[in-house]
Structures are given as structure tokens and as C-alpha cells.
Amino acid sequence: DVKVTQSSRYLVKRTGEKVFLECVQDMDHENMFWYRQDPGLGLRLIYFSYDVKMKEKGDIPEGYSVSREKKERFSLILESASTNQTSMYLCASSLLTGRNTEAFFGQGTRLTVV
Amino acid sequence: DQQVKQNSPSLSVQEGRISILNCDYTNSMFDYFLWYKKYPAEGPTFLISISSIKDKNEDGRFTVFLNKSAKHLSLHIVPSQPGDSAVYFCAAAMGSGGYQKVTFGTGTKLQVIP
Q1: Of the candidates B32, B43, B46, which has its C-beta nearest A90's C-beta?
Q2: What is the mean pLDDT of chain B?
Q3: What is the pLDDT of residue A5?
Q4: Among A45, A43, A52, A46, which Cα is nearest to A25's?
Q5: What confidence tier does B33 reach under pLDDT thresholds 50, 70, 90?
Q6: Which end of chain B has fewer CB atoms at under 10 Å, N or C?
Q7: Å from A33 to nearest chain B CA?
């Protein structure tokens, strides 16, 4: 079974803090993604990566950065956390080869910025 | 601009009856569609998908219908079971090669009443 593991289920951070959200997958997937889920807005793509050290902006990259130094690990960084970044963050991975492959998601990190 | 819309935020259905979840999209470039299911405090899990070259795909109790001319797809669950109670996200993908850009809808919360 594919396993995507996010390092924390719940986080509470202060405004202005630098926040790291970590994600690890164990199925050698090339693609990795970070989404945020907000009520009434669904899942919105923040960043994705299709290879080590490669990254592409998603639909809402402002205020975020990412790092992918190893194939299995994809980190989301909030450079200076703000209250509007309070959300559920979801990491996902998928195969690169072929089309139409579904993504496998982690359990999510509920981040609260106070 | 919401390119993938799920206009019903919630739906209640009696156990044993049919659940019909609807999804509309605006971008004719989408050529692959997926449904994900999400329980509280868990990440979404893939449920079923359909390519734009088909109009129906069936997997057990789950059937997805695609009407390209109307830019509409629906998920039918027959018979509905209490364990189906969850939030269902519709997703639409476009692009070729290794990565497809996937856009998610806002979700429909299904409650199956025993």
C-alpha cells in the first residue's frame, strides 16, 4: 500500500513564525503535491514537484515555498505565518509515468496560526 | 474562478437508496475526471475515475457518468450504506505527459441515514 505520511496532525504557530510541514512517501512516486483545504473552497494546489529539486507553482503559492532534496520527501515552508494561512494542509504523491494516475494523500495537518 | 463546481454542499440519503452526487466543469480542456472520498481527520482517497472518451465507468456500487456536451459528471452510489457518509470531491485533470494539472471541486458532504 502507498503510504504518504505527514509529520504532524495538528500544529499551532504564532504569527510571523517560520513553519515547516514535512511529507514523506514510500512508493517511489515522482510527483508530490501540497494542497490546502478550506470550507467552501475545496482543495487548492499550492506547489508541486515532479522530481528532486524541481518545483512548480500551483494556484495559490503566495506566502509559501517548498523544498524537495530527496525523492521521498517534500516540505512546505511558510516563511512568515499569518492567520489567513490557518487551514488543513494535505500532501499527496503520484506516479509520473503514464497519464491518468490518481494521487495518494496523507492524513493532513491542521495548522492554526494565532 | 471556480472551474469545477459541486453545487450541493450536502446531501442526505436513506440507507439502501441511491446517492447521486453532481459536478459541473467549465473548461473543455479537461479530459480526465476523478472522484475522491474524504472522512474527517483523514486525507482524501481515490474512488473512481473516467476518461473523456467514455461516458460511463462502473466499479461495484459506484458508477460515474460523464456528459461532455453538458460539461457535467455525476457519481451514483447504489445501494448507499452508512459507511459511505463522507465528503466527496470531484476533480478534473488536463494535460499530457507526466503531470496533469488537477482541479478539485468544493466537495459534497454525503450523509447516509440508517
Answers
A1: B43
A2: 92
A3: 96
A4: A52
A5: very high
A6: N
A7: 11
